[in-house]
Design brief:
Elements lengths: L13 E4 L3 E5 L3 E4 L3 E7 L1 H6 L9 E2 L14 E8 L2 E7 L5 H15 L4 E6 L2 E6 L4 E6 L3 E8 L3 E8 L8 E8 L7 H13 L4 E11 L2 E10 L3 E10 L2 E10 L7 H9 L2 E2 L7 H11 L2 H10 L5 H14 L1
Parallel strand pairs: 5-7
Antiparallel strand pairs: 1-2, 2-3, 4-6, 6-7, 8-9, 9-10, 10-18, 11-12, 12-13, 13-17, 14-15, 15-16, 16-17
Helix pairs in contact: 6-7
Amino acid sequence: MGGHVEYPKPTRCRLYLYEDRIEIENPDLVVPYNAITGIENMDEKKISAKRVVGLGLVFVPLAIVGAMWKKNHIYSVIEFKDQNGLKAIILDFDDRVTDIQGWIYRMMLSCSRTTSKTYHTNGSINYENQKYGFSIKYPKSWIKDELDQREQDYATVVEFRLSIENSPPFVTVYINDVEPKHNSFQSFVDDEKKEVQHDPKSSIIEFSNLLVANVPSMRLIDVEEEGYKRMVTWIPSVNRVYEISYSNKQEQFLDHLSVAEDIIHSFKIIDAIVPTNNEQSQRANSRDDPLLILKIRFAKGEITEEEYERMRSILMHDG
């Protein structure tokens, strides 16, 4: 990408998405997620108006210029930094743009964190989350999608599935806060069970005890009207309850049950590590950049193009 900018000739390219990087063949390009500075949705008019082509681009799956742009089509424009400065690539994910761009965005955020890591073991990958204090193994043929979405009394931490697309089977890890009204793990589970029982769209077909990581745990299996079958496992800890949910279409539930069981029974509680002041400062510096935050909000559709341009102008002027 260095030297003089040249438009690539029209050619088909292969795109590979890994847990730490994007790789493109023909031309060869590697973009680590931690080098990405922003992601935006653009159509051909916005790309032309913003003169994105002046940055030097790779087009996937075809190199397109001028009149060859697809009309009213959404492209993913990813800005990143390499040894030669700021660059951009335009990726055409077609009808998979929502799933793939969302996954790339979450991987970008995940790589900026210092409290989770993965490493390969025999036939599987070990995911360790030091923020929430657990580790779990998943097959190499599955992908990890670190969501880290916080709600009022629980957090959706990470999801494992077969593909980047948001489609079953799903194995998802949640963290539940234990509220003052729950004086025991049994009390928490009883409330969760009652919530399912009172849901007219769900039917409980099994409720049982089991051991996970040598910890007495509880399990509920239910069927939903939408045709999904779910197996929820609750594992108690100090001031929290870990929840691992396996969900799949009812007719395919048994197909991946053994894999889901292996994932669940690989779960271990570990010591949570609080980031040092220096680590917190580094994370704040990288994630509190006003321009980067603005780009991310625009990419997520939280602000309009007019708001983006106005606030960007203010930031650039203040800088």
